[in-house]
Each structure stands twice: as structure tokens, then as C-alpha cells.
Fold this protein.
Amino acid sequence: MFGSGKTLSSFKVGDKVTVRGPSDRPTYHNGSHGTVVTIGTKRVHVTMDKAAFERNDGEVANFLPDDLEPGHVGTPRNSDRISEAMNAMKLATGTELAAVAVDAGVITAEQGEQMKAAWERHFQS
């Protein structure tokens, strides 16, 4: 596996990071948001601010530098990721239904757009 070239000196205490596929650690931290608390001789020690699973919030884990991305990137919680995926699927269904109705001449294109907007509003609330 080729690394991105990140080194321990790429990080400093207080940096916000996102865990990306730990190479030699359990994958349950993948996607977690954390803050660098100390830097060891080979690893960066991170406290989990918003872990992939809530039960790991506050946990301190250590990672190789290439396992971390600077900043909080993406959605950390697995439950939130599943929810986003389900909403995307539901929105796609509504969009497809409106397109079929427009193509069949049952509704106008304008009505199709209104239908898609209503469908989107419904799943955002």
C-alpha cells in the first residue's frame, strides 16, 4: 500500500481530523471525526469528537499519519450515513415517478417539477 506522504509533522495538537480506513486498526473508526491530542513517535493520538458509533465518542485511539485526513470531512455517524442513503433512494423514487408521469402525458413538465419539489421538501423535514 502506498501512503499519501503524510508524516507525524503533518499534524499538530488541536488539529481536527477524519479517520480514513485505518490500515492496521479496527475499521469501526472509519469516518470518525476527532481532534489530535498528542503525537507519539510513530502514531497520532486522536480523541473521537464524533465517532462512527456514538459509544466511541470521547475514546482516544492512535493512528498512522496516512490513516488521517485533515479537517472534519463527510458524515461520521454510520446511522446518519444509512439515513442519508435511504433519503437519497426515496428522493430518486419520487423523481422517477414524476418523470414517468410527465413522459406518459399524465401531468405537465411544470407539474412534474412541483411534484419533485414537494417530494424533496417532505423528506427534508
